[in-house]
Amino acid sequence: MQNLTDEELMLNYQKGEALAMDELLRRYKNPIYHFAFRLIQNAAEAQDITQEVFLRVHQYRDTYKPCGKFCTWIFSITHNLCISRLRKKKWLVYWPRKQDDPDELVDFVSPDPSPQEVVSNNEISDVLKECIQGLPFLQKEALILREYENLDYQEIAKILKKSLGTIKTLIHRARQNLKTMKK
């Protein structure tokens, strides 16, 4: 199962192979949780969103078509659920000020840290995290998908339902804003 692509796994899951979902869950539970947590800034809500994402993958498995990347599809589901929660609750989203945030869920942490986690934990300072939170929401979201989730511009455009040019502009402006905030 580990040598199959995400798209192949999803097609196998559509055919009723339960182990395919186990592998997709293994591959995506941490990235989905971390993306949701970075946007929502609430560990319990991020966990709920992560569970709901996989529930939606299960519910809509028959509608999945491998015309694009699976990661684009699953991050789009996550994006939509986060936006819905933010709209309903009208939360203010803050980046944690301490690296040892007590709200972080232990059961979602992989024993082997991902490259994004290593970079985040070792190189990004609290000041930079606060600056990222100061960005306009769309700039912040596009930047998080690019830098933390390593998605390409085309995938980000599909997830956020914006044009490729808009995504490039959002990420460029986010980086420019961070440069000016840093000074």
Task: List its salient traits.
9 helices; single chain; 183 residues; mainly alpha; 68% helix
Polypeptide structure, described:
With 183 residues, the chain is mainly α. The longest helix has 23 residues, at 18-40. It is built from 9 helices and no strands. The radius of gyration is 17 Å and the shape is globular. The chain has helices at 6-14, 18-40, 43-59, 70-89, 115-123, 126-133, 137-147, 153-160, 164-182. The chain is 68% helix and 0% strand. Mean pLDDT is 82; it is low at 91-98 and 105-110. The N and C termini lie far apart (48 Å).
Structural class: mainly alpha
Helix count, per DSSP? Answer: 9
Shape: globular
Low-confidence stretches: 91-98, 105-110
- Measured between the Cα atoms of the first and last residue, the distance is 48 Å
Question: What is this structure's SSE topology?
Answer:
Blueprint: H1 6-14, H2 18-40, H3 43-59, H4 70-89, H5 115-123, H6 126-133, H7 137-147, H8 153-160, H9 164-182
Helix pairs in contact: 1-2, 2-3, 2-4, 3-4, 4-8, 6-9, 7-9, 8-9
Describe, in short, the structure shown.
This protein has 183 residues and is mainly alpha-helical. Helices cover 68% and strands 0% of the residues.
